[in-house]
Amino acid sequence: MSKSITAKGLNVYYGDFLAVEGVNIEISARSVTAFIGPSGCGKTTFLRTLNRMHEVLPGARVEGELLLDEDNIYGPGVDPVTVRAMVGMVFQRPNPFPTMSIRENVLAGYKLNGARLSRSQADDIVEKALRGANLWNEVKDRMDKPGSGLSGGQQQRLCIARTVAVEPDVILMDEPCSALDPISTLAIEDLIAELKAKYTVVIVTHNMQQAARVSEKTAFFNIAGTGKPGKMIEYDETSVIFNNPTNEQTERYVSGKFG
Amino acid sequence: MTTDSTTRSQRRKLAKKPDNTLVSADRAGAGLDRGFAGLAKAAGIFILIILAFVAFFLSWNSVGALYQEEEGLIIGRFLSYAWPFALGTVVVALLALIMGAPIAIGVALYISHYAPPRASKTIGYIIDLLAAIPSVVYGAWGMFVLAPAMVPLYHWLSEWLYLWPEENLGWGIPFFAGSPGMGQNIFTASVVLAVMILPIISSVCREIFIQTPKLHEEAALALGATRWEMIKMAVFPFARPGIISGVMLGLGRALGETMAVVMVVSGLGFQASIISPGNSTIPREIALNFGETGHGTERWHQLVALGLVLFIITLAVNMVARWIVSRHKEFSGAN
Predict the structure, then answer these.
(1) Fold of B77-331
(2) How confident is the model at residue B229, as a pLDDT?
């Protein structure tokens, strides 16, 4: 199920603008990896290249290789739709489909695959996904209510349930807790620790304590100045990044001396 | 009003005490705010008054078509006179909607989600330009260009949907019976109307499609949706009320359109066929006859009553649309 990610000399362009330059990274399967760095350093852009979501902006393109296990997701003839079905994504702000019920939201990915599910199969998938997202007990009695009626933290967990329901190989999270209160944040962080057992999780966060709490490895991104490309400065075990980084920029960032 | 004046007098009373400095703050701003609220309220009431006047005028003057002193109630006579026109109006408008709405929605979708930015602007302008063409011009185009061009199609329809089945099965579809003549029939009229309602539907839809939250579009894409699946999952559900509003605006225009229908259709009385000359609509009937009918005669009252029927049809259409929009309020994403 779970797959590793390898980037080799990855450059990301928006038109002629080089947004992220020369990323080399190996993310192993069944692990949590955090991307940290100041705003605009390219960590979210890089995250979005992992499931080709950056391509929603016209003119976005990539140079280099990005391997999911052995397969280059930017290889010729690869459909981004296939990639996105394998690499799920959770966004900064919870975004359940407002016109769908909680149950329909969880099954949204299955609907796309065109799978014909019997009622009981669908029930099983919904329950499993919602249990997986630690949401089952809170919503089991109101499955037909709109997903947008839940609290922010519940909505975000619903989005996670929607993502895990289709059993992707990788789950990308783009600052999943930045719109949530501390209690909901804690619930999501616990969940990330559980998801690690089955999925490769990559999380972008501005919260360094969060990166330290949830991740095994951390990548620090930085940007030299406005208009310059973002770069991955350092990638190592999380404990090393926070306690004993080799690069001076990383040291200054994690100790709060800049950015 | 009473609450306003009491608060004001209270305020004045309080203002004498100097200990609360907040009391007299921002007088001018508050006055402006009240003034603007009043203006908005007046505008709202004004619309209702106009609507009430129109409804009253139509109802009051329709009485003569339903009741005459010498004969008593003559509702039957009015209904047998009015129904072909009412039916014609609804059929023409519905045909126009069936042809126009999908194209309009498709155009809106192309502009909002498919076309490259520069092309989408150009196409948008051209579509909006369609709305600026006077209906007389549409009528002339329909009469001289479209009607003759449609004749071969009418012959084909008549041949394969009426003549052939009648010969071989003993029954042909009556909507396609008769000779197309010059093509000046209600089908041609509905094609003209379809073009006329295109810009209004497509610009309303375009505006609402563009407003689809990026978050929801990306949620669908991130689940592995193709662009069309994303549109079905995120854009259409979000835009549904807007699409319905746009379509209803188009339907309203099609129901009320007069000049183009007058020019395109050559009327020879009611018939089932939509491809041979004949049939009429309420606006056409009123426009053709109102000028030469003596004020106060039964004929005059009948024409006004026809207007009332059109008014009621339009009102009913709008209410149905509102009901459809409100039915799924809980799931509208507004909460």
Answers:
(1) MetI-like fold (1.10.3720)
(2) 92
